[in-house]
Amino acid sequence: MNYDTIESRGSWRIAMISLAILSVSFGAPLIIVVGLKQIQAVTGIDRGVLSLASALVWLGNGAGGILMGWLADRIGLRAVVTCGITMMAGGLALSSLGSVWALCVGHGLLIGFLGNGALYAPLTIYVSRWFDRRRGTALALIASGQYVAGIIWPTLMEQGIARFGWQPTMFCFGGMVLALLPLVLLLRRAPEPLSAGPARGGALTGGLVLGLRPNTVMVLLCIAAFCCCVPMALPASHLVAYAGDRGVSPSRAAAMLSVMLFCAFFSRQAWGVFADRFGGLWTLLAGSAAQALANGAFALMHTQAGLFSVAAIYGLGFSGIIPAYSVTVRDLFPSREASWRIPTLLFTSMAGMAFGSWFAGWLYDLFSNYMMAFAIGGAFNAVNLLLLGLLVIRLRPSAGERLTVSPAR
Asked: What is the mean predicted confidence (pLDDT) over 28-49?
């Protein structure tokens, strides 16, 4: 069925501005990831504690997104994004002091909760309201800011840490974050939604979603999001250190992270098209299955060439998962509920990233290797696949149920 669209050239311009902001902001927590072994050597802080600071970014990002998503609808997106940029720069400056409390407060509160929390979820909601036909493609594009950051910054950060030390590198990156402020002026009010488009399994008769109460589906999605992000955090936060433990040099290990995220960037665009064609739930199931296979391959690889290959394959597989959760929310629930459902779902996924990042570091300190972390991560991935499979099965209405037009579009 053909219907009018709110999409325009301006929609894609807004998406590109959002991508530019996130491509820098997602670079902020990468300094600990790239310099984990060097920071540990200089400060004497346990790897588990440093992993906790990195994990707090994800946790703060998710929790802050709930508050900031709500706040953006009331005081305006520009004010919220401006707050996020300035707080993130302050968090980098504070973390550069090098103490445990400065790293945890700087990363968890300023970079995470008040920083990326005010950027990622609010911009995701904002961009979703500029699109109705190609929403999956657009959300995949802006979510790729994480991967653009991973392509550009790790190698530069490694060189900066090698030449100047990790503290000056972290402080200088804060100045780069502040340079984003002029872009805020280009963010305009989102257009009002037009008539709804075709449903993808949401909004059944009687107010049900997939034949279940809406909040029941939401809870299942949140549990699935947490479980998928626990294993996702291991390569995202520990790949450079893991490769270093396998004898890979710091520069090549940083390049390995860039390769993984380079592949993830282009793959995420393909996953976005896939989501536009088949819907968010099918994208989640396929991406999670690909992630499970690649995580298992990481645990078995010991050579530099093998790790590079698996890093590239991993990037191709897992990259569509996070934006697909936002697409799923817009597929299944009304647009007016996006301002709290999307941040809530992102919070549970970020909480999984935080737990997975810290837990992997703790297990490393306990066993002096990452094998147990990969094994437990595989168990979390299995639970995720089970829950998503149960929801996908319910996409087809049962006998006697009539699928109505969803208000989500």
From this structure: 82
Q: Determine the Cα–Cα distance for residues 70 and 276; give it in Å rounded to an integer.
A: 26
Task: Give the residue from 380, 348, 100, 117 showing the smallest Cα distance to 234.
Answer: 380
For the chain, what percentages of helix, strand and coil (3-state, to nearest 5) are there?
80, 0, 20
Which of left, alpha, beta for 280 (phi over 0: left; psi -120 to 50: alpha)?
A: alpha
Give me the torsion for CA of 189, 195, 200, 205, rounded to 10°.
120
Q: Specify whether the CB–CB gap between 389 and 257 falls below 8 A.
A: no
What pLDDT does residue 409 have?
38
Report the amino acid identity of residue 98.
G
User: Which two structure tokens, joined as six digits, stand for 56?
Assistant: 């707090």
Q: How many CA atoms lie within 13 A of 220 on its CB side?
A: 20
Radius of gyration of the chain (CA): 20
Quick one: angle between helices 135-143 and 145-164, nearest 10? 10
Residue closest to 124 by CA, chosen among 407, 331, 346, 409: 346
**Residue 217 backbone dihedrals phi, psi, to 5 degrees:** -60, -40
pLDDT of 317 strictly over 70: yes
Q: Which of 336, 330, 290, 329 is nearest to 312 (CA)?
A: 290
Q: How far apart are alpha carbons 10 and 2 in whole angstroms?
A: 21
pLDDT the model gives residue 396: 62
Q: Render pLDDT for 253-276 as a digit per residue (tens, 0 to 9).
A: 878 877 887 888 888 888 888 988
Per-residue pLDDT tens over the stretch 282-293: 999 999 998 888
- pLDDT the model gives residue 406: 40
Q: Give the C-alpha separation, 179 to 379, whole Å.
A: 42
CA distance 95 to 115: 13
